[in-house]
Amino acid sequence: MKRRKNIIKIAIDSPAAAGAGTLAKAISKHYNLLYVDTGKTYRVLAREKINNPKKFNLTFVKKKINKLRIKDLNKKNLLSNEVGTEASIIAKNKSIRNLVHEFQLKFAYSPPKRYSGSCLDGRDITYNIVPDADFKFFINANVRTRALRRYKELKKLKMKISFKEVLKSIKLRDKRDYTRKIAPLKKTKDSVLINTTNLSKRACFLKIKKIIDKKIKN
Ligand code: C5P
């Protein structure tokens, strides 16, 4: 893979439903960056595993990843709680992670020419996928706030689920993501912490924009 030179690379890590996706999208739009929601790459595979449990093996995953396009990450059928939970199980598998990484690296370092760079969010982006990112952020919020946000999103999509179930599954995913041996979620020393618990989307966006502009304009 040929890496593009002189592009802006932004890496974001966060636990589930902390608001990273919303922020990453706004930042990507503002700076003309390709946005990659890396959680969705695991969710695509989780959806396949739920739909075809018998077919699901490494060869199948490899084929799926080879065919995967950015637009495939926008499908509505990836948003359920069930898919998120299955994604966090799949994400513990090293061989699967290696295959997924190829896809993520390609877009992080070689976004299409029309973009000025890339912005990836996930769990291991700041230290594993784009360790040389120009900007690194760790987006967080307390667990009840995160669960409430996810609950509202799922309700909007008319999914049948209670707040209690969402809270339980977010806690379970946190545990899996923070404690797994391979590529655990963590805040690196060189990432800026943004706590979104009591901040509006606009306020978070402006906080990040200020940090980026300060460096870009110097
Ligand atoms: O971000 P999202 O909730 O869609 O991610 C689903 C799951 O995928 C996470 O709980 C995590 O286990 C896994 N994931 C990961 N590494 C990433 C992004 C997501 O392990 N870079």
Write the layout of secondary structure elements.
Elements: E1 8-13, H1 20-31, E2 33-37, H2 38-51, H3 58-67, H4 81-90, H5 94-109, E3 117-122, H6 125-129, E4 135-140, H7 143-156, H8 163-179, E5 192-195, H9 201-216
Helix pairs in contact: 1-9, 2-4, 3-5, 4-8, 7-8
The protein binds cytidine-5'-monophosphate (C5P).
Keywords:
218 residues; alpha/beta; Rossmann fold; 5-stranded parallel β-sheet; binds cytidine-5'-monophosphate
State mean pLDDT (0 to 100 scale): 96
Helix content: 40-55%
Task: Using the 3D structure, state the CATH architecture.
Answer: 3-Layer(aba) Sandwich
Radius of gyration: 17 Å
H and E order: EHEHHHHEHEHHEH
Query: In what order do the strands lie side by side in the largest sheet?
Result: 2-3-1-4-5
The chain-level structural class is alpha/beta
**Which residues sit in consecutive blocks of at least 5 with pLDDT less than 50?**
none
How many angstroms separate the termini?
31 Å
**Morphology call:** globular
- How many helices in DSSP terms? 9
Number of domains: 1
Q: Describe the sheet with the most strands.
A: 5 strands, parallel
Record field, number of beta strands = 5
Which CATH first-tier class would you pick?
Answer: Alpha Beta
Strand content: 5-15%
The fourth-level CATH homologous superfamily is P-loop containing nucleotide triphosphate hydrolases
> What is bound: which ligands?
cytidine-5'-monophosphate
Q: What kind of assembly state do the chains in view correspond to?
A: single chain
Query: At the third CATH level, what is the topology name?
Result: Rossmann fold
